[in-house]
Amino acid sequence: MYQNRSRKKKRASNVSQNFLFQTWLTKAMDDALNRELKSYYVFKKALSSLKKYPLILQSGKECRILEGFGPRLCDMLDEKLVNYARELGVTPSEALVLGNMFNSTNSADLDKTSQVSEHILNEI
């Protein structure tokens, strides 16, 4: 016999695969809003698109496949990634992994990454 089964809609996880890029876009969006710049809407559209993307992006240039990302925005993310990696003393790909590891914790912990990165890299 047919049983009436209730089907629950699966929801997307709140855990972001691209936490580091989202953090930088959120900060840029907030800055644009505070300065009353029209670029706020560009950042908002790009951030919305990034939040919906389920895969990990390896660079800012890979963001070009998403809606709302142009060459300048992708270059900005790549530049921030290179500077962040230089700060940590690791390669950009390692810095991206370390930054995204903090997606389940407070975003304030992102600044503490440099203290933790050496310990984590030694374990790898």
From TrEMBL:
Key word Coiled coil present: no
This protein's name: Crossover junction endonuclease MUS81
A Pfam family matched in the record: HHH_8
Domain Crossover junction endonuclease MUS81-like HHH intervals: 17-83
InterPro entries noted in UniProt: DNA_pol_lamdba_lyase_dom_sf, HHH_MUS81
The keyword DNA damage appears for this protein: yes
Main location: nucleus
Cofactor(s) the protein requires to work: Mg(2+)
Location(s) in or outside the cell: Nucleus
GO biological process: DNA recombination; double-strand break repair; replication fork processing
Family: Belongs to the XPF family.
MF terms in GO: DNA endonuclease activity, producing 3'-phosphomonoesters; metal ion binding
Gene Ontology CC annotations of this record: endodeoxyribonuclease complex; nucleus
The entry's keywords: DNA damage, DNA recombination, DNA repair, Endonuclease, Hydrolase, Magnesium, Metal-binding, Nuclease, Nucleus
